[in-house]
Amino acid sequence: xxxxxxxxxxxxxxxERRDVARVGIVGAGQLARMTVQAAIGLAVPIxxxxxxxxxxAALVSPDVRLGAPDDPAxxxxxAAGCDVVTFDHELVDxxxxxxxxxxxxxxxxxxxxxxxxQDKRRQRAALAAAGCPNPAWQALDxxxxxxxxxxxxxxxxxxxxxxxxxxxxxxxxxxxLGDPDAARALLAGPIGAGTPLMAEAxxxxxxxxxxxxxRRPGGEVVAYxxxxxxxxxxxxxxxxxxxxxxxxxxxxxxxxxxxxxEAIGVVGLLAVELFVTHGDAAGEGGEDGGRLVxxxxxxxxxxxxxxxxxxxxxxxxAQHLRAVLDWPLGPTAPTAPAVVTVxxxxxxxxxxxxxxxVGAALAVPGVQVHxxxxxxxxxxxxxxxxxxxxxxxxxxxxxRRAAAVLAGE
Length: 409
Prior knowledge:
Layout: H1 7-16, E1 23-26, H2 30-42, E2 46-50, E3 64-66, H3 72-80, E4 84-87, H4 94-102, H5 111-118, H6 120-129, E5 137-139, H7 145-156, E6 160-164, E7 174-177, H8 180-188, H9 190-194, E8 197-201, E9 205-215, E10 221-223, E11 227-232, E12 235-241, H10 247-264, E13 268-277, E14 292-298, H11 308-311, H12 316-324, E15 338-345, H13 358-361, E16 367-371, E17 381-389, H14 392-407
Parallel strand pairs: 1-2, 1-4, 2-3
Antiparallel strand pairs: 5-8, 6-7, 6-8, 9-10, 9-11, 9-13, 11-12, 12-15, 13-14, 15-17, 16-17
Helix pairs in contact: 2-12, 4-5, 5-6, 7-8
């Protein structure tokens, strides 16, 4: 359990370091935890706003305030003690953030960007305005959403993907509907009655990739190499660098991500998740029909960037701090020819704390283990393992073996 400052202690600590920029993070999950770790080397004091004292980052940070991310008083108190406020999730009220900005506080990314990434309908509209490749889509917020959804399917073909416009992650909030009856059943149930929804045309996916971009307030922007994200049941299981794509498609993905960051004016990190349609076989070029389609955006450190801790010249977490503090951005080149990160998920029937199995996992040569201090339950992200080397298959094998040991499989 990390030590916790009282309010008086926190003020004293701030007074003693007036010339050092303090960063406030709304949220205290594993993304904040790894940002705290990166901040240590940069001598950046971090103050967290955590829901619970047992949150992942709260366990390792000395400066934690307890409060809800939608509590105006809690957010105002965090902002008052920090030079810049940033986030490890999107579960914040953008209107409260706008009021903080109006009061003179620095919020990065800004309230407008947070409002955009919170709502997938607004994402789609912004991407379309910027000329980015979208699937066909429609907001289901009219007087008769069932009629609109069925009509969308008839116009664009079945199956149709229905999405919760707000919230949803790791496969939740997404439904693939095979026919009009499935659409009617979704909208007739409790989800359809209480969830703002949108419809998207089904994209035939050959693989999924992501590009993480960092941008400073003045416009300096860098992109990490495109990474393949291997999804199982809607949850990212592996990250692979280099992504097995044609060089032309890799360049196109990185240019697209940079253009999105500029278009929405993000400050900090932006993860751009992309679908690659069928037609681009690995190494054969994009000219045979494969194309990119934007899936979703996230304006914060992201699971798709975990490989960068050991696998890139600058980790995504250090990069995010540099960006929101308006410091020069770091190099993004990989540190090895092949990097593979495997997420450690709670396994059904596994018992005990994965931390008790770290020694056994480290018996696999050359792996780096990161655990998040979270209680194990099936399907929950408990940590990740990264391996580096020359051969992608050999590197992946080592990372998978160590992750399986940690998960108790």
